[in-house]
Amino acid sequence: MNPIFSELPTTVFEVMSRLARETGAINLGQGFPDDPGPEDVRRKAAEAVVSGWNQYPPMMGVPELRQAVAAHYRHHQGVGLDWEREVMITSGATEALAGALMALIEPGDEVVLFQPLYDAYLPLVLRAGGVPRFVRLEPPHWRFDEDMLAKAFSPNTKVVLFNNPLNPAGTVYGRADLELLARFCVAHDAVAVCDEVWEHVVFDGLSHLPLIAMPGMRERTVKIGSAGKIFSLTGWKVGFVCAAPEILRVLAKAHQFLTFTTPPNLQVAVAYGLGKDDAYFRDMRDGLQRSRDRFASGLAARGFSVLPSYGTYFLNVDLAPLGERDDVAFCERLVREFGVAAIPVSAFYARDAIRSVVRFCFAKTDAVLDGALARLETAARRAA
After folding, report:
1. How far is residue 360's CA from residue 365's CA, in Å, rounded to a whole number?
2. How many CB atoms lie within 10 A of CB 294?
3. For 293-319, how does the pLDDT look when each residue is reduced to its tens digit (9 = 90+)?
4. What's the rounded mean pLDDT across residues 334-350?
5. Which of 32, 55, 87, 355 is the residue whose CA sits 20 to 30 A from 26?
6. CATH code assigned at 321
7. Which among 33, 29, 2, 73 has a CA at the least distance from the CA of 363?
8. Each residue's pLDDT tens digit, 78-94
9. Which residues contact 338 (CB under 8 A, 6 or more apart)?
10. Which residues are within 8 A (CB) of 374 and not within 5 positions of it... i.e. 6 or more apart?
11. Sequence-distant (≥ 6) Cβ neighbours of residue 337 within 8 angstroms
12. Tens digit of pLDDT for each residue in 58-78?
């Protein structure tokens, strides 16, 4: 069997979720919300199953969804896209990432990756024959600078895989960061594959800025979005891929031989959802921000050092002030002794891991968050 996959260990997400089930712990590890998602969007999907088309939809996606994606990004991010030549629908963002990497990378091409990183990135890069070059980010701000990029980029750089907002760090990169990264992409003739699934889940009045809108990036960026994250419907697996025609043409060929297409009823429902008025997206962000603040203040009151979170469903705590330097061991104690499952952030590093940070998912009801805080009442003092 191929060693890239056969030798992968069991993911920490699976381990912690299993422990949560076995111990009856509150699971704040995996990143899914308690909310079932907007009822009107779900009803559209149900209606489309009963009354709509249930055979193969077009490989590129149903026209109404591709048009809705283009209109949505024009309205919310000021990005103009030709829906017929620059927008494709995939079965989730992970499929979009896999297809993009397979289409863009030849064996020996170097790929710049930012750590901490989503766990699918590295196996997909390696399977495509890419050579990873890492940029190591550190708390509390998880920023990169010119010197860090200069060490990662080389004449062999082909692709940059960039996640913004960044899971698990909760960082939202601004214009100065994006313009710096864009300059390196242009100088090295590299294509940026941008995982922007958290683009609507940003807080504190921030707005998501897409890398594709930066100078020199329009023709060298693959922008990837996710209906699952926008509408808290993580099981739907409907992704969006936006790129210049010369790039999308090749990505479409990879998509054709991965999943080929995506359930038509979900595409119809997502098209409807993307056209919802601004109040929906504002209220969604406000609700999650309230949950973030509720949980952050509760953790701080219990002695945890809470790191800033400006986006995503996640909040991190730094264990270093407690003298704790093993996030894996801490998470195992947390689930077994205190009944709360979290994720060690070292799991998001391929090398030189930060081992003092733990991630919690706050996209939960007040009752779940309060229950977790009650169980964590003495956890920080015990660690110290």
Report:
1. 14
2. 16
3. 999 999 999 999 999 999 999 999 999
4. 96
5. 355
6. 3.90.1150.10
7. 33
8. 999 999 999 999 999 99
9. 25, 375, 376, 379
10. none
11. 379, 382
12. 999 999 999 999 999 999 999
- Which of 254, 276, 298 terminates a domain? The answer is 276
The structure tokens 């979005």 sit at 225
Phi, psi of 5 (to 5 degrees): -100, -40
Q: Which of 286, 287, 305 is nearest to 296 (CA)?
A: 305
Going from the C-alpha of 375 to that of each of 306, 365, 378, 383, the distances in angstroms are: 17, 16, 8, 14
DSSP states of 75-100 = HHH-----HHHHEEEESSHHHHHHHH
For 368, the token pair is 């779940």
In this predicted structure, the answer to whether residue 110 has a pLDDT above a threshold of 70 is: yes
Q: Are 346 and 329 in contact (CB under 8 A)?
A: no
Rounded to whole angstroms, what are the CA distances from 157 to 73, 150, 267? Answer: 29, 11, 35
Question: Domain span at residue 269?
Answer: 39-276
Residues 366 and 304 in one domain: yes
Q: Token digits for 25?
A: 């712990």
Between the two ends of the chain, the Cα-to-Cα distance in Å is 45
Residues 341 and 326 in one domain: yes
